[in-house]
Design a protein that fits this description.
The protein contains 33 helices and 17 strands. It is elongated, with a radius of gyration of 42 Å. By secondary structure, the chain is an alpha/beta fold. GO terms for molecular function: potassium:chloride symporter activity.
């Protein structure tokens, strides 16, 4: 059956076979249509290049349009003409789009300038180990990167995009900035390599600073700084003017790299039958620099006369035969050996082992005999070849590793590829395999062809200042010199082109606020400000002026980036997220974990202090993004990992009951909302944050009356308001809004169902109901009583804060004050725990804790005080202890006495409250409130099974601690006007000190506590009810004015 549209036939070639093509940003339908005639042909790397042109012409066309710039660069130059827009279409395949850019980025300055020196210093075996470790690290990273890159689109940003979308904005931003710094310092390293080639091998006379009195190294560093600053400014101008000029030179730079590699292998083959004539001069076993003499001999015969050579005059004080010469020069002969004996000479055996040395030591051929003399001779100022730095294995690893970076070149340009999900893995892994073979084979070939002292001669002083690797090349050393010069110059330009765009990608994501300005640029999108910052950071590397010092720095940043690429792949694989479906199947989490471990090991092998500095930088960026960065939801793996960890922890928590030592209040905060869905008492959240200090579980809940279908919009608005207030008050927790036909049922649902598994609340915090006694509000008192009953049934503690709006805000700081605890019934220590937790917060930190307890007629108050002090000592709490002796109530208030035994009053109120609570009688509750407020103003009252009420007046102080404005607790039985230890209330008021009596101080009532005691029941210091009974007591907080 034909499902084609009108006007098409089944044979229409534009329609195809009826199978819909995959819609992908990597695939251009026009290109696919052109390549139908070549389907089924196995052309290896070139099969993607096959379009309507023959293979050769197609390849030449692609090479003509070759660019090594990252994705997004050519788009900025798209304003020229339609031809340019056509060229930038994603039509590159594996060979042109991935393989060649990776090859060009990997093969670079270290190969040409340092690989021979590494082989000579570390020996063939240890050099092989260094290269193998680094190549294995990049290969494992490439496997992980291929899995991530084929799991979706990878736009501009490359590794930053992969890490950020896999591990989240915090990791992505931290590692992205580290990768940016690594790319920037790589530009500095390439520029330093360019200058070294220019001043050492091409034009030494161009040096501005000349070596005087042995200051050659310092002069070279100054030349590096001056020339480097000029070149970085020139390159920045070129990149600013337009990357199209860099793009046009890309093929030239690539050709230089390829021709240089070919010249090296050609030179190795030539040494087998015709080694080049590069002779080196040795004095004893010490290598001599050929810069200042031409004849390798002490004497020479001219017209049958023996005359001294320039070498003689360098070691002796005159040209005469009887001159005084250096002792080592006099004792040893001058010999001349072949510097490049050839691949069949057997020199490989001599170069197998390492020859590490200290800074300033002479390069020696240890196989030759040497006479050192009786005294230690001075070598400074003599024409020897010296080592410029101290060498050891780990240092060589740090210098070499930058030579294997550049594996991200293919993934950075996935949008320019025809089939990125096929090209990136194939091209990257093939490029790493090729370069690994080149590096490993060069190590063996260098060791087999070149004399060891030449290999250890970093700057080629023993071979007339020639580039060591150039002496091996065919047909001329200048092939390597010129090729390496343009290669390093082009690599520096590419770093200055790619690094600003990486910074621009990070800035435009908005995860680092202070980098927002670097997301802007010219009208066509060129990152001008990012380019300026990149040039400034690159200048720091230029000022270091030593390639060997800059290389370990960028090694740290690249290794950290590769480590997190492996981590991202391992996390995604282990989590098995539904979206993790990479087309690249040849990966495993063990390979990613091995790659991550190898990267971490190499970081500390290269330089442990650089590794720590890089980790500190990444950690600071991570924490900054976490606290100040924009919230991004990218479906990253860290979020999935957090969910898995939370699930595992919840299952573990639910498996066992919490121990007393691990107990802390897990609070459910019940908020009241007004008609605008705003919180009525914001200070309740302030108090919660002060009590919790970000620890434990906090659930902020509220109830909207109605039906959810009608209230869904109001629920969203209420959640936004509550969450914004939680952020302002720094309350870390969860928000839960419930819609219920009645407020009573909604609160009941919250108490029953809030939380998840073992992470459920054990304490309910609410504000004191303000209108529960009013006749026009018939449900307020009933809802409050029901809340008390339901928290009791749920075996949860209930905290009720009275005068909550008077509680201190988080910004307030008490310079002094008290937190008074009226401890009437033993509660297992929760009343002691609450003020301790409060004092951890800055608001209450300077307040003191005071414990008041009540002694009845038959109690020993002195012993009770000692026992309570010992109890606090075992609890490791610091508090003042006072025992209040309550023989009877004889209290003066507004001219009348109320006298009654405490036990009779307690029994009466107990019965009244039980009746009110059980039968939900409103009249009874109103009558109870009137009794408590009229008969006992200002007194805390403990009622079994009920609420602890305190009138809006100051609770009195113990008799032993009379304070201004406070009435002692125990009134005198003989006088109605005076107290035993303090002035009367009338006296205090007349002196102006009793103004605090009418102030509604903040109070916190603990209505229920189910804490188990922290000590055996037999050691309970007071004959109070056991913790299993419902606890009724209160804690009162005040600030001394």
């Amino acid at each position: 059956m034909w499902w084609g549209g009108p006007g098409h036939s089944p044979a229409d070639p534009e329609v195809g076979d009826g199978v819909p093509r995959e819609s992908s940003p990597f695939i251009t339908n026009a290109d696919m249509d052109k390549g139908i005639i070549y389907e089924g042909k196995n052309m290896a790397l070139f099969e993607e290049e096959m379009d309507s042109n023959p293979m050769v012409s197609s390849l030449l066309n692609k090479l003509a349009n070759y660019t090594n710039l990252t994705q997004g660069v050519i788009e900025h130059e798209a304003d020229e003409d339609s031809k340019r827009r056509e060229i930038k279409a994603p039509r590159m395949g594996t060979f042109i789009g991935v393989y060649l850019p990776c090859l060009q980025n990997i093969l670079g300055v270290i190969l040409f300038l340092r690989l021979t020196w590494i082989v000579g210093t570390a020996g063939v075996l240890e050099s092989f180990i260094i290269v193998f470790m680094c190549c294995a690290c990049t290969m494992l990273t490439a496997i992980s990167m291929s899995a991530i890159a084929t799991n979706g689109v990878v736009p501009a940003g490359g590794s930053y995009y992969m890490i950020s979308r896999s591990l989240g904005p915090e990791f992505g931003g931290a590692v992205g900035l580290c990768f940016y710094l690594g790319t920037t310092f790589a530009g500095a390293m390439y520029i330093l390599g360019t200058i070294e080639i220019l001043l050492t091998y091409i034009s030494p006379s161009a040096a501005i600073f000349k070596s005087e009195d042995g200051g050659e190294a310092e002069a070279m560093l100054n030349n590096m700084r001056v020339y480097g600053t000029c070149i970085i400014a020139l390159m920045a101008i070129v990149v600013f003017v337009g990357v199209k000029y860099v793009n046009k030179l890309a093929l030239v730079f690539l050709a230089c790299v390829i021709l240089s590699i070919i010249a090296i292998y050609a030179g190795v083959i030539k040494t087998a039958f015709d080694p080049p004539d590069f002779r080196i001069c040795l004095l004893g076993n010490r290598t001599l620099s050929r810069r200042n003499f031409d004849t390798c001999a002490k004497f020479t015969k001219i017209d049958n006369k023996t005359e001294t050579t320039r070498l003689w005059r360098l070691f002796c004080d005159s040209a005469l035969l009887n001159a005084t010469c250096d002792e080592y020069f006099s004792l040893n002969n001058v010999t001349e050996i072949q510097g490049i004996p050839g691949v069949s000479s057997g020199v490989l055996i001599d170069n197998l082992w390492s020859t590490y040395s200290d800074k300033g030591s002479v390069v020696e051929k240890r196989e030759l005999p040497s006479l050192t003399g009786t005294e230690e001779t001075k070598v400074a100022g003599l024409p020897y070849v010296f080592t410029d730095i101290m060498t050891f294995f780990t240092m060589l690893v740090g210098i070499y590793f930058p030579s294997v970076t550049g594996i991200m070149a293919g993934s950075n340009r996935s949008g320019d590829l025809k089939d990125a999900q096929k090209s990136i893995p194939t091209g990257t892994i093939l490029a790493i395999s090729t370069t690994s073979f080149i590096y490993l084979s060069c190590i063996v070939l260098f060791g087999a062809c070149i004399e060891g002292v030449i290999l250890r001669d970093k700057f080629g002083e023993a071979v007339n200042g020639n580039l060591v690797i150039g002496t091996l090349a065919w047909p001329s050393p200048w092939v390597i010199v010129i090729g390496s010069f343009f290669s390093t110059c082009g690599a520096g330009l590419q770093s200055l082109t790619g690094a600003p765009r990486l910074l621009q990608a990070i800035s435009r994501d908005g995860i680092v606020p202070f980098l927002h300005v670097f997301g802007h640029g010219k009208a066509n999108g060129e990152p001008t400000w990012a380019l300026l910052l990149t040039a400034c950071i690159c200048e720091i590397g230029i000022l270091i002026a030593s390639l060997d010092s800059v290389a370990p720095i960028l090694s740290m940043f690249f290794l950290m980036c590769y480590m997190f690429v492996n981590l991202a792949c391992a996390v995604q694989t282990l989590l098995r997220t539904p979206n993790w479906r990479p087309r690249f199947k040849f990966y495993h989490w063990t390979l990613s974990f091995l790659g991550m471990s190898l990267c971490l090991a190499l970081m500390f092998i290269c330089s442990w202090y650089y590794a720590l500095i890089a980790m500190v930088i990444a950690g600071c960026i991570y924490k900054y993004i976490e606290y100040r960065g924009a919230e991004k939801e990218w479906g990253d793996g860290i979020r999935g990992l957090s969910l898995n960890a939370a699930r595992y922890a919840l299952l573990r928590v639910e498996a066992g009951h919490p121990h007393t030592k691990n107990w802390r209040p897990q609070v459910l905060v019940l908020l009241n909302l007004d008609s605008e869905q705003l919180v009525k008492h914001p200070r309740l959240l302030s108090f919660t944050s002060q009590l919790k200090a970000g620890k434990g579980l906090t659930i902020v809940g509220s109830v909207l009356q109605g039906i959810y279908l009608d209230k869904c919009v109001e629920v969203q608005k209420a959640e936004e308001n509550v969450k914004s207030l939680m952020a302002i008050e720094k309350t870390k927790g969860f928000c839960q809004i419930v819609v219920s036909p009645s407020l009573r049922d909604g609160v009941s649902h919250l108490i029953q169902s809030a939380g998840l598994g073992g992470m459920k609340h054990n304490t309910v915090l609410m504000a004191w109901p303000q209108s529960w006694k009013l006749t026009d509000n018939p449900f307020s008192w009933k809802n409050f009583v029901d809340t008390v009953r339901e928290t009791t049934a749920a075996q949860q503690a209930l905290l009720v804060a009275k005068n909550i709006d008077l509680f201190p805000a988080n910004q307030e700081r008490f310079s002094e004050g008290n937190i008074d605890v009226w401890w009437i019934v033993h509660d297992g220590g929760m009343l002691m725990l609450l003020p301790f937790l409060l004092r951890q917060h800055k608001v209450w930190r300077k307040c003191k804790m005071r414990i008041f307890t009540v002694a009845q007629m038959d109690d020993n108050s002195i012993q009770m005080k000692k026992d309570l002090q010992m109890f606090l000592y075992h609890l490791r709490l610091n508090a003042e202890v006072e025992v209040v002796e309550m023989v009877s109530y004889k209290f003066l208030h507004n001219g009348f006495y109320f006298t009654s035994l405490f036990s009779n009053l307690l029994t009466t109120v107990q019965k009244l409250i039980r009746f009110c609570v059980i039968y939900e009688d409103k009249t009874c509750c109103q009558h109870l409130a009137a009794v408590l407020e009229t008969l006992l103003p200002g007194q805390p009252l403990v009622c079994p099974g009920a609420v602890c009420l305190v009138q809006d007046q100051l609770p009195p102080c113990p008799p032993s601690l009379p304070m201004p404005g406070l009435l002692p607790l125990q009134p005198s039985p003989a006088s109605a006007d005076l107290t035993p230890d303090g002035p009367s209330r009338a006296t205090l008021a007349s002196e102006g000190q009793g103004t605090g009596y009418g102030r509604p101080w903040p109070k916190l009532f603990l209505l229920h506590s189910l804490l188990q005691p922290a000590y055996p029941a037999s050691h309970t210091p007071y004959p109070f009810p056991t913790p299993s009974t419902t606890l009724r007591t209160c804690i009162w907080m005040k600030q001394q004015q």
